[in-house]
Structure to design on (170 residues):
């Protein structure tokens, strides 16, 4: 039998809080953009969520300490690539602290609005205008206006409890 943990603010431990947040299963995305200088950037993100249908808005967040923060803050558009169950290696590829140009070397992709890379084989793609950025503590919250999207019926890659998961689809 598992024991429920109850933690109040006086006992707050960031690692334990992160473990509790890990109870929530999320999809895995790679957010990509092309900067004003033509350079590409991309990173694995699991903070993606829908916000509004009218207008079509989505959000995601990025640590203030991420080297690519300025590129995403200043770009006109970005793409949210929702990874499929067979794209675990792609998730890991964009999660590593590699140079952005190295991340895209030998990687096939299409160009979306504003030149944002659209990764091949994903479940869904959301091409967003970089509309609003909000303070979110140690993260910057991006609210994007979806200008174009497409999707395929493929099982998604899921993350929960600190590890990748796959959905059992009947």
């Amino acid at each position: 039998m598992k024991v429920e943990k109850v933690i109040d603010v006086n006992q707050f431990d960031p690692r334990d809080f992160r473990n509790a947040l890990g109870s929530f299963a999320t999809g895995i995305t790679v957010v990509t953009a092309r900067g004003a200088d033509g350079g590409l950037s991309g990173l694995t993100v699991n903070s993606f969520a829908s916000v509004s249908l009218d207008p079509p808005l989505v959000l995601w967040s990025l640590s203030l300490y991420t080297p690519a923060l300025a590129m995403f803050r200043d770009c006109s558009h970005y793409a949210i690539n929702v990874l499929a169950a067979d794209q675990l290696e792609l998730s890991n590829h964009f999660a590593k602290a590699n140079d952005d140009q190295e991340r895209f070397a030998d990687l096939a992709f299409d160009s979306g609005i504003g030149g944002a890379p659209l990764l091949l084989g994903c479940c869904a793609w959301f091409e967003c205008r970089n509309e609003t950025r909000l303070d979110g503590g140690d993260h910057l919250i991006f609210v994007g206006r979806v200008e174009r999207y497409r999707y395929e019926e493929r099982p998604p890659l899921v993350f929960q409890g600190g590890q990748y998961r796959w959905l059992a689809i009947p």
